[in-house]
């Protein structure tokens, strides 16, 4: 099989490509990535020679139809896995426009190019955030109504609905996966876990929004990638699949776990002004994916977080390189207001 993976230089896309190349010796992967601030070709460096020969990187925008149609033909693409997106909620609050440009317009252009070239399978990667927020009980399921609360989640919900429309209107073979919060190697240090690792390692205050009791349902990135692989191989067209890992933790629990593993004092925690529209709780019901796809997460948070922090410790150079000028500009202006 020849697949086009978009956004493969980001956190989850890179982990997915590594998994796929390692597990399917006869698959070829073309990675289309615009290389925004979050995209880093280094995330795929050091592939074993045999895998590198089956991997092609192309820098470009999913919204560029001439480019994507050309790639579909040149590489005889069978399937698309669309990870490319603007992905950070705080940035979407600061400046929503790029989120709608890539996540909505870009996805629509990619769907249209794939439809024109009769691509046989299109997996669109989405998020639990499209469902909005939960009270103290219950979990999101695939039929939970969409109720996004941030510009990021509104843009993701819009792209999910475009996928639905392409299936219903054109019979286009697209399916959507929705996952909870990922953590693991190669995550960009604007997201909670790598950011708190950086701050704690430098003995700097750890900025916790609001009361720190917002709950996220953490899943190790390779478990999410396994779900996407199963959806690609076995998923039903037009269907939505939720992935999670029963990993509910509030932010204070996550942050104190990181401090404890690193041997740093809890006094580094600094409560700061809350994120506007901050969803209180996410929890993913993934029984449908268990039954239909055979999906089972493998990692527990306790061991996954240790493995993740070990990876960051062993990859200090990677961490230093991704904190370039544009990273610092956004971080300085966002946290100055908190
Ligand atoms: P990321 O920000 O680390 O990576 C996004 C990648 O997309 C980057 O490499 C970037 O350069 C690329 N990109 C952005 N705009 C592009 C464009 N117009 N054309 C081509 N490439 C472009 O994001 P991530 O955390 O790896 O998330 C990947 C996907 O998974 C996103 O769709 C996100 O909504 C979804 N998701 C993320 C999580 C999570 O916890 N991180 C959970 C559920 C779903
Ligand atoms: O749920 C899936 C989503 O998870 C994905 O769709 C998004 O792409 C991904 O970024 C992530 O969104 P969150 O907003 O949940 O992740 P983030 O790491 O930004 O924040 C996690 C929690 O930590 C959230 O409650 C906000 C809080 N937080 C975050 C930062 C960056 C803090 O308290 N302080 C911080 O500095």
Word description of this protein:
There is one protein chain. The chain is built from 13 helices and 13 strands. Helix 1 (11-23) links the parallel strand 1 and strand 2. The chain has a domain at 2-182 and 221-245 and 282-298: NAD(P)-binding Rossmann-like Domain (Rossmann fold). It has helices spanning 11-23, 49-52, 65-74, 89-94, 97-116, 151-170, 192-201, 221-234, 251-262, 287-293, 301-314, 316-322, 325-336; strands spanning 2-6, 28-33, 55-59, 79-82, 121-127, 174-179, 182-183, 206-209, 215-217, 219-220, 240-243, 248-250, 269-272. It is globular. The protein has a seven-stranded parallel sheet with strand order 3-2-1-4-5-6-11, sandwiched between helices. Helix 3 (65-74) crosses helix 5 and helix 5 packs parallel to helix 6 (151-170). The longest helix has 20 residues, at 97-116. It is an alpha/beta fold and 338 residues long. 44% of the residues lie in helices and 16% in strands. The structure holds nicotinamide-adenine-dinucleotide and 2'deoxy-thymidine-5'-diphospho-alpha-D-glucose. 2'deoxy-thymidine-5'-diphospho-alpha-D-glucose binds at residues 87-89, 127-129, 180-181, 191-192, 195, 207-209, 214, 216, 251, 275, 282. 2'deoxy-thymidine-5'-diphospho-alpha-D-glucose binds next to helix 7 and strand 8.
Short description:
The protein is α/β, with parallel strands linked by helices and 338 residues long.
List keywords for this structure.
338 residues; Rossmann fold; seven-stranded parallel beta sheet; two-stranded parallel ribbon; 13 strands; globular; binds nicotinamide-adenine-dinucleotide
